[in-house]
Each structure stands twice: as structure tokens, then as C-alpha cells.
Amino acid sequence: MQHRFGYYLRICSLGLAGLLLAAASSARASYGYNTTIAIDAPGAGSNTSAGVVITPASLVVAGTTETGFTATFGGTSVTLLGSARAGFSVPSTNTLSFADVVAATTTPATSAGDSFTVGYTLNIQLTNTPPPGTAAPPITLPVRGRLTISNVNTGNGTIDNLFFAPNTGTVNFGGITLTGGVTNYSPPTVNGALGSLGGSAVASVAAVPEPASFALLGCGLAGMAGMAYRRKQKGATA
């Protein structure tokens, strides 16, 4: 009877050890974050060409209303839209889309096209929802840049982007280290699909099991130590 009881006890201990390993592995799972972008209307000194008209704008993208501003000169308009983005996970490397860019023009292809520049500021807000890490106030990272629209008409033209330095860096909040930068730009097609302003982020955090996991681990180890002691005592009296 004692032999059978010991057998079942060993099986339960192995099962508990498996659960503890699963709990430790779950600490390395993916966790969500939110990145919210607000685009400020440009004012004096923000690299906006004279004669450009700035107006509030909104556009429904994938069922979500994004707000920002539209810069219009001649028959060409360029709209930058901020939005709430889905979170990214840690530890991992992610490509992030910070803002949508919409370009449209009614300027005839036979003309020289419209040329102007428009500056912008991205206020990138990062919010940590633990775990991992600890609760911390959101961090806002401002990034400035400039779009240059050159000879845009219904037949041709180019739109280029420049991110002003500093455009890379490392921050720590809530125990999470985030290294990233705004280095990506996908030029929009005039009168066509959305373009985007974006970047990349590498997030890392130490995977630490919860206190309850430590408690379970202690119980499991104590139980296994007790089993070993009983077997040793039984062997000594045999």
C-alpha cells in the first residue's frame, strides 16, 4: 500500500513540476502596448512653405476615425493622420506605423506641378500595461519631420520625408527597455493608396515568475525532498 502511495505521490510531483515550468514559460509570453499618435498643426518655424493652407482633417481608415491636418497648395493636398495603433509585444522587434499619409491632386499633368514643404510633429505616446514591468505613467516621445512635395501633378511628382535628429534612442519605463527609431517612410501614391510614417522598436524585459509561482515551486521542492527522505529512511530500516 505504501509503495502504491509513493508511486502516486511521485506522479503528482512530476505533474506539479510541469505546471511550474509552464508558469515560468508564461512569463516570456507576449504582452500588449498601445501607441497613440497626435499630429500637431504646423505653425511658425515648422518648415511650412508660404501660401500653404492648413486645415483640420479626419478620415475613416479600417473603421477607425483618424484625425490630423491637411496641407494644401495649388491643387495638391497632403494629409497626415494620427491614430491609435494596436500594441506590440516583448521581447521582440516590431515595425510600427505611426501615421498615415494621404496625397491627392487636381493639378493637370500638362502643368509644372505643385511644390511646397510642410513640417510636422509626431507625439508618440507609449503606455505600459503590466505585466511585464510595473505600472508607470505614459511616456510621450516628440519627433519632428518635414515632407517635401516636388512638381506634383496628375502625371508625376515626388513626395519625400525627412526625420529631424534625434530620431533614434532608448527609454526605460515600468522596467521595460525600449530601443527604437523613426526611420521608415513609405511614399504615398498621389490620388492612390495610403502612405505611412513609421519606425521600429525593440523591447526587452526580464521574465520573472510571479510570487505565487515561487510559492508553488517551494511546495513542490519540499514535497520531493520529503519523498526522498522517506525512501532513505525506509531503505535504512529494511
Give your account of this protein's structure:
This protein has 238 residues and is α+β, with helices and mostly antiparallel strands. 22% of the residues lie in helices and 47% in strands. The strands form 2 sheets. A 7-stranded antiparallel beta sheet has the order 2-3-4-6-12-11-10, with no helix packed on it. The chain has a 5-stranded antiparallel beta sheet with strand order 5-1-7-8-9, with no helix packed on it. The protein is elongated and about 105 Å long.
SSE order and pairing:
Layout: H1 2-26, E1 33-39, E2 53-61, E3 64-73, E4 76-82, E5 84-85, E6 92-105, E7 114-128, E8 139-152, E9 158-163, E10 168-173, E11 176-186, E12 195-204, H2 211-237
Antiparallel strand pairs: 1-5, 1-7, 2-3, 3-4, 4-6, 6-12, 7-8, 8-9, 10-11, 11-12
Short description:
The protein is α+β, with helices and mostly antiparallel strands and 238 residues long. It contains 2 helices and 12 strands, in the order αββββββββββββα.
Notable traits:
seven-stranded antiparallel sheet; 238 residues; alpha+beta; 2 helices
Radius of gyration: 29 Å
Number of domains: 1
DSSP E strands, number: 12
CA-based shape: elongated
| Discrete helix count | 2
Helicity level: 10-25%
Strand order of the largest sheet: 2-3-4-6-12-11-10
Unreliable residue runs = 14-29, 208-214
- Biggest sheet details: 7 strands, antiparallel
H/E topology pattern: HEEEEEEEEEEEEH
User: What structural class do helix, strand and pairing data support?
Assistant: alpha+beta
Strand content: over 45%
| Mean pLDDT across residues | 76
End-to-end Cα distance, whole Å, is 16 Å
